[in-house]
Write a structure and sequence with these properties.
single chain; mainly beta; eight-stranded antiparallel beta barrel; 8 strands
């Protein structure tokens, strides 16, 4: 059975341009290109669904299609 901790770790796009670290305790840190911590905030996972609350005020969501693939914001992220 998958739990929220099953998804903790680094996720990135195939080209490595966007890198999202899902941290223990429900926080994330997203880098884009050379810009570290471009987006930070909190997340919550329910089943295969992830919901984000960014510190800058926007909200987003995504779905884990398997244990190594995340669809979020029009991008596909892979577990690194």
């Amino acid at each position: 059975m998958k739990t929220e901790t099953s998804y903790i770790g680094m996720w990135q796009t195939a080209d490595g341009h966007i890198r999202q670290q899902l941290l223990p305790g429900g926080r994330y840190d997203e880098a884009r290109g050379n810009r570290e911590s471009a987006y930070t905030g909190r997340y919550e996972i329910t089943g295969d669904y992830i919901y984000y609350w960014d510190d800058s005020g926007f909200e987003a969501d995504g779905n884990f299609t398997d244990e190594n693939t995340l669809h979020h914001g029009g991008y596909i992220f892979y577990r690194k």
